[in-house]
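Hi support team,

I've been running sequence recovery on a batch of backbones for a student project. Most finish fine, but this one hangs at about 90% for roughly twenty minutes before it completes. I'm not sure whether the input is malformed or the queue is just slow. I've pasted the structure tokens below so you can try to reproduce it. Let me know if you need the job ID as well.

Thanks,
M.K.
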């Protein structure tokens, strides 16, 4: 990535234009020349990420929240493994949001989210998120429309509040095609080691593809804000997806520029104390 094209500018969506998702090719590779270039850059990006995340952790004041959303097989787990697996686990955590428990259902939809927000210095990854409450919930009419339709504004207010409290919010929609999802589901069936990942309910969800795409379109249009932007990551090619999310995160952390604390140390006195015994 050359310095004159920031990946966040390349992937950031414009909510004021026409339809967003239909204009983005899931097999596209914006911002990088080819696979070889992306793969050659991975080690360097991982090193940058490792050092930046360490600085965030020891600075201990601000935090980062990465929200990952995707259709089934979209690559959330693979992204977490590749992009975040090289960081120091002491400062990194993952929260997966599934079908709400009975206890969770008894609370406001943001209750379970608030409990997993990153603490100072932490980098938190959400594998699914509060956005499910305007995605699956909308597609399946799990609550009345007048309830879910009010949630976009609630989410924007919530994210503005956490951003103001020192959390950088980065939201990534891993965008795969209908055909690629079929390939990935078939690949799971063809590999006995992947059968555990196969969920027949994913085929029912797949039948509602268009409804989900429309729901995602509204999420991105209504909830991509300056404080908490949405990025649409073309995700049919795993090498591109990994490169893009890693680059985006490295760039975001570089912009935050976390710094090591600089305590005042009397270096000479401390070295004298460490002098070898006579
Ligand atoms: P997985 O990510 O494959 O383990 O599946 C988790 C499932 O939980 C997905 O089918 C989600 O749509 C579902 N889920 C997550 N959040 C909610 C929610 N707020 N309401 C209903 N279902 C949800
Ligand atoms: Mg699933």
């Amino acid at each position: 990535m050359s310095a004159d094209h920031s990946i966040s500018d390349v992937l950031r969506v414009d909510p004021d234009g026409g339809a967003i998702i239909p204009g983005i090719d899931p097999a596209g590779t914006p911002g990088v020349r080819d696979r070889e270039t992306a793969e050659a850059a991975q080690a360097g990006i991982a090193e940058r990420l490792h050092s930046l995340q360490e600085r965030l952790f020891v600075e201990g004041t601000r935090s980062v929240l990465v929200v990952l959303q995707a259709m089934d097989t979209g690559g959330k787990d693979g992204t977490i493994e590749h992009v975040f697996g090289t960081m120091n686990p002491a400062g990194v955590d993952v929260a997966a949001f599934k079908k709400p428990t009975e206890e969770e259902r008894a609370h406001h939809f943001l209750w379970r989210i608030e409990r997993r927000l990153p603490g100072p210095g932490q980098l938190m990854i959400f594998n699914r998120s509060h956005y499910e409450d305007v995605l699956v919930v909308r597609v399946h009419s799990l609550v009345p429309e007048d309830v879910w339709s009010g949630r976009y504004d609630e989410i924007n207010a919530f994210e503005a509040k956490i951003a103001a409290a020192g959390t950088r919010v980065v939201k990534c929609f891993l965008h795969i095609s209908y055909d690629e999802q079929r390939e990935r589901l078939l690949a799971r069936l063809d590999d006995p080691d992947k059968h555990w990942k196969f969920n027949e309910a994913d085929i029912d969800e797949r039948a509602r593809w268009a409804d989900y795409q429309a729901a995602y379109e509204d999420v991105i249009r209504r909830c991509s804000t300056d404080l908490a932007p949405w990025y649409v990551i073309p995700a049919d090619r795993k090498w591109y997806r990994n490169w893009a999310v890693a680059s985006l995160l490295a760039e975001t952390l570089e912009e935050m520029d976390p710094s090591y604390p600089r305590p005042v140390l009397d270096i000479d006195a401390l070295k004298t104390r460490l002098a070898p015994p006579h």
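--
Follow-up from support: It reproduced on our side and the slowdown came from queue contention, not your input. The pocket of adenosine monophosphate (ligand 1) is lined by residues 97-100, 128, 132-133, 136-137 (CB under 6 Å). No action needed from you.
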